[in-house]
User: What shape does this take?
Amino acid sequence: MRPLMSVVITAHNEGNEVSRTIESIRANSSSSPEIILVDDASTDGCCDELVQDEALRIIRRPTRVGVANSRVEATRLARGAVIAYFDAHQRVETDCLEKCAKVALENSAIVTPDILDFDGQIRMHGAYAVICRQQRYMTAEWKHRVPSGGLGRVSALRAPTYLIPRRVYSRVEWSRQLRGWGGSEGAVSLKAFFAGVPILHLCGPLVFHQFKPKFHYDVDWPEIWRNQAINTRICFDERSWYDYWLPVVFEAHIDEAVRMELESDVIRAEHLEFSKLKVRRDDEFWTSLVFQSIPIQLN
Assistant: This one.
């Protein structure tokens, strides 16, 4: 029987958190979701003792490819009507996932619950898209104010957990060209906006997230810039890319190899394929998503 839900967990050197996250999902989910764990070349043995069975499938990567690519690979194996994406350091309240899955299927929408850090200090109610002041690419900020209704529209994702119905996944899926850390939630947020896929926040159901003071692995800024450039190149039209995004935002931060990669047949094909899914114009990104003036280069 096809499960209601598949849970995709990505892990890289997470210690005991991986097994604790899996235990929490199993103990607090009434729908018996299948779990697909991607061990993205961990070196600390965090996934070594986990045993694969019908309810837990494990993908072991010999070299690290990063969050987005790991999720793409796991999703291709997923059988559920809804896919829930987790980091390996989270906990979930009872039936949180089932409540979110119901809303996701009813609305053909991406759904995110409330997120609370492990020490219980900060509760987030979804996120909204902004332009990063320093880097000038799209990012997201948490919403801390309690919404007036139980279900509301938000404009971006910032961190797991979120659920995507299988029937809309192909409109927002990650590029397999993304590497390492950075840009994975931004990719889904940007594609969802342009493809007209709602991102909804369901207030009440709760997931706990361990927000760490620093990364437990190397974060490579050139790789982050590369990921952000790939997302932008795929989602915006030629004029927006060549007149604004490339010269104004990215050119100073990417080398010639990345520049050539952005012009490769693979990236161009992804760009053309996504352009067929777009229901919003590029100028709406500025006026309706990040609420800024259209750059003078595009006027």
